[in-house]
Specification:
With 190 residues, this protein is an alpha+beta fold. Helices cover 37% and strands 26% of the residues.
Length: 190
C-alpha cells in the first residue's frame, strides 16, 4: 500500500506556483494545499493499485460542471514527478480557471446574505414583535398580529421580496395599497 502522505509531500515540492504543502486529509488520504487556498486531494482509488487526484473547492452554490471537477487516476507505483506532471497537465488548467469563479460567487453570496440580513433587521425595526423565521437560503420575516392576522416578507435576492398579508382589516389594506402605489410606476392602459 502506498503512503499517500509521503507521495503528496514529494509531489507538493514539484508543483508550480508554490509553495504547496501536504497535509493528512482525515481518512481520505492527503491534501496538497496552496497558500491561496487551492487544494488537491490525493486518495486511494476504488481501483486497487491506483490513487486519485482531484481539486477540492470551498463549499459553494456555484454550479460546478463535471468538466470543472476533473480527476486523474494514477498508478500508485509511479513516482511523485509523474504525479506532479499529471496534476499540472490534467487538473491545474481547469482548477486555476474555475477556482477564482467559485471565490467570486462565494463573495457575491456573502454580500447577498449581508444585504438580506440588513434588510431583515430594518423590517424588524419597523414592525414591533416581528421575527426572522428563516435565514437560509433567504430571509423570511414574519409578524403574527391578533389571530388570525399574519404578515410575511420573503426577501429574495437583489432587493426583491414577496409579501403576504393575511386577514388584514380594510384600513390596513388601504394603507398598504397606498404605500405600494406611491412606489410603483404608473402605466397607462393601452
Amino acid at each position: 500500500m502506498v503512503d499517500l502522505h509521503a507521495l503528496a509531500a514529494q509531489t507538493a515540492r514539484l508543483l508550480p506556483d508554490g509553495p504547496w504543502e501536504a497535509a493528512a486529509d482525515r481518512d481520505r488520504g492527503s491534501c496538497l494545499t496552496h497558500r491561496d487556498g487551492r487544494r488537491i486531494r490525493i486518495e486511494a482509488a476504488r481501483r486497487p493499485g491506483y490513487v486519485d487526484a482531484s481539486p477540492v473547492y470551498p463549499e459553494t452554490d456555484f454550479a460546478l460542471t463535471d468538466a470543472e471537477e476533473p480527476s486523474t487516476a494514477f498508478r500508485a507505483d509511479r513516482s511523485a514527478p509523474a504525479l506532479a506532471r499529471a496534476i499540472v497537465a490534467k487538473l491545474l488548467p481547469v482548477y486555476n480557471e474555475t477556482y477564482p469563479k467559485v471565490l467570486a460567487r462565494n463573495a457575491q453570496r456573502a454580500q447577498q446574505i449581508a444585504d438580506g440580513l440588513a434588510q431583515a433587521e430594518h423590517l424588524l425595526d419597523l414592525v414591533p414583535h416581528a421575527a426572522i423565521v428563516r435565514d437560509d437560503p433567504s430571509f423570511i420575516v414574519e409578524h403574527d398580529g391578533p389571530f388570525p392576522v399574519r404578515a410575511q416578507v420573503h426577501l429574495l435576492s437583489d432587493g426583491i421580496a414577496t409579501v403576504t398579508l393575511r386577514y388584514i382589516d380594510a384600513a390596513t389594506t388601504e394603507a398598504v395599497m397606498q404605500a405600494y402605489a406611491a412606489h410603483v410606476p404608473h402605466h397607462s392602459a393601452t
